[in-house]
């Protein structure tokens, strides 16, 4: 598939998902519930197969980015909570969500350090896997049951989804190197799985949004606009932090480019479902920023 075709594939998946969610709400929501976790697992597995543990190292840049992602997300949630808890959740998930599996690819295209982004992508996903059960439980998810029960329910779904792909990738590398090598050299698979999962989760989000009626429109607009602020803010802060360590591009992409498919799934599963408007809108904002950055990079290269 050509690069131009890939450029149009994700927007097409979003539009198609919106249409499916509007006209075929029940089957779209059903298959999103069934297939989205499987696709997220598979995408992470393919991505982790290209990671060499020996090349991974924690840098000061990673710590700074992770602090914004976790601590910054909680601070923003706390600040917005007194305005409206739902809006606070919708903005929080846009910050707390881990780095996108495609972030190293965009980083390489822009001239940043791919190895830095691969290391941070792993750290970012592991941090979310370990902390999300605690954070989501404290936010009152499954409020009708105890904190411990809520914590265990979320652990049982999130930990296997985010950590098990790494374990499987390491086992394949050790015991089934041919399979590992095949997945390592088929990174395009994650792109196609990303498109399918985007179709499903956007469809499910649209289905839920339509069910809410017009009275929810002010919430939806507020969440969408705050997701724009979160997106621009994270690209900006990531670039500033990266600049301190001589890698503005990796800093911006590590903090700003999010695994929005995972974020939408988490919002629909553990937060008030309407908060999925946040990461759904974030898809548009981050792709717009990246498209503009790639345009500027291509323009500069032409004049060299």
TrEMBL record:
Keyword Membrane found: yes
Transmembrane segments: 7-24, 30-49, 61-83, 122-141, 147-171, 191-210, 216-238, 259-285
Keywords from the UniProt entry: Membrane, Transmembrane, Transmembrane helix
Signal sequence bounds: none
Domain of life: Bacteria
InterPro entries attached to this UniProt entry: Na+/solute_symporter_sf
Protein name: Transporter
Biological source species: Barnesiella viscericola DSM 18177
């Amino acid at each position: 598939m050509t690069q131009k075709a890939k450029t149009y594939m994700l927007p097409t998946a979003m539009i198609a998902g919106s249409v499916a969610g509007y006209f075929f709400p029940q089957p779209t929501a059903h298959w999103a519930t069934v297939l989205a976790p499987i696709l997220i697992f598979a995408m992470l597995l393919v991505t982790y197969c290209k990671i060499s543990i020996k090349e991974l190292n924690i840098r000061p840049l990673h710590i700074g980015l992770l602090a914004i992602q976790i601590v910054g997300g909680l601070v923003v949630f706390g600040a917005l909570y007194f305005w409206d808890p739902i809006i606070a959740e919708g903005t929080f998930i846009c910050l707390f969500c881990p780095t996108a599996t495609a972030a190293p690819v965009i980083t390489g295209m822009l001239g940043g350090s791919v190895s830095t982004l691969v290391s941070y992508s792993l750290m970012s996903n592991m941090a979310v896997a370990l902390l999300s059960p605690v954070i989501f439980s404290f936010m009152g998810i499954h409020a009708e049951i105890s904190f411990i029960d809520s914590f265990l329910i979320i652990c049982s779904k999130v930990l296997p989804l985010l950590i098990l792909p790494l374990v499987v990738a390491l086992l394949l590398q050790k015991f089934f190197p041919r399979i590992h090598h095949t997945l390592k050299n088929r990174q395009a698979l994650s792109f196609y799985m990303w498109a399918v999962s985007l179709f499903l989760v956007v469809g499910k989000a649209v289905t839920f949004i339509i069910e809410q009626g017009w009275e929810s429109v002010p919430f939806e607009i507020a969440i969408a606009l705050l997701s724009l602020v979160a997106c621009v803010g994270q690209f900006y802060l990531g670039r500033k932090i990266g600049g301190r360590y001589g890698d503005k591009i990796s800093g911006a992409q590590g903090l700003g480019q999010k695994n929005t498919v995972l974020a939408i799934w988490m919002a629909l599963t553990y937060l008030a479902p309407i908060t999925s408007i946040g990461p759904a809108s974030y898809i548009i904002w981050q792709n717009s920023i990246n498209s503009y950055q790639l345009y500027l990079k291509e323009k500069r290269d032409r004049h060299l």
